[in-house]
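Collaboration report, partner site 2.

Our partner group contributed sequences for two proteins of shared interest, and the home lab folded both. The records are reproduced in the order in which they were received, starting with the first partner submission.
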Amino acid sequence: MAGLCAYTALFIVAPVQGLDPVSLTGDSRSYKLLAENILRVGTFSLSLEAPYAPESFRSPGYPLFLSGLYGLVQHWAAVLLLQAALLSVVPVLLYLLMKPYHERAAWWGSIIFIFEPTRLFLSVSLLSDALFAALFLGSLLLLERARMRASWRHAALAGALLGISMLVRPIAMFLPALYVAYLAFFMRPWKESARFVAVLVLSAAIMVSPWALRNYAHFGSSQISSVGAANLMLYNAPEFVRAYPSERGTALLEQFKLRHESLPERELLSLSRAGEFTAAFKEVIRGQEVSYLAFHAVKTLPFFITDGLREIARLMGVEFGAMPNYTSALLRGDWALLGQYLAQGGLATVLLVAGSGAWALATALCAWILWRALRGKEEYMWVFFAALVVYFALLTGPVSNARYRLPVEGFIIVAAAAVLL
């Protein structure tokens, strides 16, 4: 029902603002085109006509999901409605996963999660995050069942869903390490846990390997996507140099920009350039690694405290002035500017105080239950859930916003509820 309300609101508000509810963002338009090309010419490409250049910046999981839905209903508005219905399972998965550790908190946390604005918005948008959240929570639930029931089948299914989730969002590519640590820590005897680890890893590899082989054949790299490497050089490095200006960093960015802009469009984000992106990024921060760590940590703060309401309002064409960059002001130590941001009033400040204030409180309560778990006063499983939150926060880093928190924000909500209840 909540998803249907979100869907209805989107299709009422967006046209009034002169927006296409199916293609609100550049990401949405890319996913839509990829899905259409899969159905029309059987090629994973963003090209509008032949020859269809193989795509390597986007991963294939979500476009394949969309192509399947579109093949069923033949209309993009209906695709979004069907997606919203399917992804309404996400709060249910959260409840089933967290129920053994605090049933009341799992119940109330899942209820809150049902109506969480960012989750609702993403469930009715052509964006990969809501599908990824469903796959991620499903894999965790199966992982838990595998441990509790010593079930090989559940371990294999957990690995399969984990592998598919990597193809939806490549940020999951390092999650097998945490899953292995989970089995090694919580499952005994050691030989049994080693066997389950092997089943899980093999199952995930089976899902990912065809795509890795395809990329190796086309681009000479078996990575899932170039998105991680590209973000380092195209976003993190420029933001870092703005925060910590230096002649050397500015010169390196300029040299890279000239090289980057000289390439054909099809090569700009190609996986064949992943090594180049990473090497250039390392050169920019060389000698300033400690400063970069500080920058990365501060820029990760929005992962924990942003509410997403201002971003949703912006995407829906609501005008309320420029959104202030608090983390940049914090890095500069410009406390006066921070005060000015808060004092400027208007809708932007109201949304900031109401939304970010609530998430800051939830994060603080989550940290409290983690502290109690580390001291042996709470179920130790909270440590594992906290590790997953930190994983996504650190890998998201300077591009952090509420959208990228979705896979683990349910853990934060339930942990906060557990303290209050």
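Second partner submission, folded after the first:
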Amino acid sequence: MKKITKLFLCFLLCVGFTSINAQTRNTLEFDATNAASLVNCGTSASYSPAVFTAEAWVNIYAGGGGTIMSNVEYIDGGDGSRGFEIRLSGQKAEFNMAVGVANGDWFGLIANNDLPLNTWTHVAVVYDGSKSEIFYNGVSQGTLNGNNPILVSQNDFYLGEHPFWPNRRLSGQLSDVRIWNVARTAGEIQASMGAFLSGSETGLVANWKLDEGSGTVINEQVANTNGTAGAGTTWQLNTILSTHDVLLENSFSVYPNPSKGVFEIKSSINQAVDYKIYSIMGSLVKSGILSKTFDSIDLSDNAEGLYILKGNLGNRHFIKKIVVR
């Protein structure tokens, strides 16, 4: 067992892959017990576009919950409900969009899966005018049909707290919050989620990177509509955002494993993925592209033993052990 462990560590060093292989950045921590734990980003009609995408990197803590982002306002009567929110329902991301007037109507969707605790996950919500969809790390977590237009909120846009119903505060950290006036695809989300944007990207209407590392000013990169961090927030410096994607890893199954050398690969994400296979000593033995749904890999000409399958999809990675016997 010790020998195998040493060999596996050697592999990790040889191929330059760890479970935390990603950017280092400053992030903002929110304390659900502190009433001043929020970022107020001000008000703008551009934060409630008719078609939109909202994104953020999220790291939630045990026992936490609360609001990731929201500009929801609610008046019981003629003005009804307005704006949208992304919050937590238990450990699941939940999206609510205000589409009603009298007494308020809501268009709501809860993700299929829990967000992992103490782990950075990219959360995105897309509304294309006919349906909404939630993504974790660019992988769909469910859709909901509905073509009611969002009603523009006149409320301030908050991060980590609810601007209309207070005490729905986040317990965890946020990074790189974005709002677009376009419905982004899974591929577009995956391609850009791991890197900071310039602010000039087509369709981007707001981007708070939350990378300042000190002070209370939260810079906005598109229109300079800067936010203000409350005293209940804390900067976390040199945070590492993981790109080892457990959800992506679980989207692929390999069978039979062990095998005599031919492995069937089944995918549930419907996207092609680059792959490389390494020996336990770190030598590259095979590479290629896995098809969108089903493929096979033939290692029957290779020696018996443990191999490592490394998959890459944009900025995301996963590994699986495969055994030839």
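Feedback sent to the partner group on the second submission included the following. Residues 8-22 have pLDDT under 50 and may be disordered. The longest helix spans residues 2-15.
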